[in-house]
Automatic annotation (TrEMBL):
GO BP terms: CAAX-box protein maturation; proteolysis
Domain CAAX prenyl protease 2/Lysostaphin resistance protein A-like: 59-162
ATP-binding as UniProt keyword: no
InterPro entries in the cross-refs: Rce1/LyrA-like_dom
GO molecular function, one term: endopeptidase activity
Domain of life: Bacteria
Transmembrane segments: 21-44, 56-74, 95-113, 125-145, 157-177
The species this protein was found in: Stratiformator vulcanicus
Record bears the keyword Plastid: no
Keyword terms, alphabetized: Hydrolase, Membrane, Protease, Transmembrane, Transmembrane helix
Coiled coil region boundaries: none
Protein name stated in the entry: CAAX amino terminal protease self-immunity
One Pfam family of this chain: Rce1-like
Length: 182
């Protein structure tokens, strides 16, 4: 199949695939597994703290819809759907592993690159090794969910819930939505 046609087909399948109850249970399991690893790591390194931001209500109203699109939907579409073969595609195990590894590396590297090129106010966070390790764990979970469900919606929800937990209770004042105000 030609590359453009393959990508188009992959996008159609990933976006049309709904989520079953089993898929939602997989999502819940991934969130639990992520939390068991990322929260203790983040608390131990000082990256995370258990305190909602002072402006939790305004953060909530702004960040719920915004974070669904960016980073969740856009990043998962690029780093999962674009780079990783859809479960319905016949690919060798070697090619699948390579695609997943490249996707994960690019996903992790995207964060400091984004900070350096587009959002310098995020450098204190996006250049932290502990943040990048947690981003890698998020990427592994999102990849697992995409491969298990064939749907973009499982990794998007996974990513979105993690970002909301970050912004609304585990350290949201470390990074803001947009450049800092003077």
């Amino acid at each position: 199949m030609k590359p453009l046609k393959l990508v188009h087909s992959r996008f159609i399948r990933a976006f049309r695939s709904g989520l079953t109850l089993g898929d939602l249970l997989q999502l819940a399991g991934c969130l639990g597994g992520f939390s068991l690893i990322a929260v203790p790591l983040g608390l131990a390194t000082g990256l995370l703290r258990l305190a909602p931001p002072a402006d939790a209500i305004s953060t909530l109203l702004l960040y719920i819809p915004a974070s669904f699109v960016l980073p969740s939907l856009i990043e998962e579409t690029i780093f999962r759907v674009l780079f990783i073969p859809h479960p319905s595609e016949r690919v060798s195990e070697r090619r699948l592993r390579l695609a997943c590894a490249v996707s994960l590396i690019l996903f992790v590297l995207w964060h400091p690159m984004n900070a350096a090129l587009f959002a310098p106010w995020t450098k204190p966070l996006f250049f932290r090794l502990d943040f990048l390790v947690i981003a890698a764990i998020l990427g592994v979970g999102a990849t697992y969910l995409y491969r298990r469900t064939g749907s973009v919606w499982a990794p998007v929800l996974f990513h979105w819930i993690i970002v909301l937990a970050w912004k609304l209770g585990l350290g949201g004042s470390v990074i803001t939505f947009g450049p800092p105000t003077a």
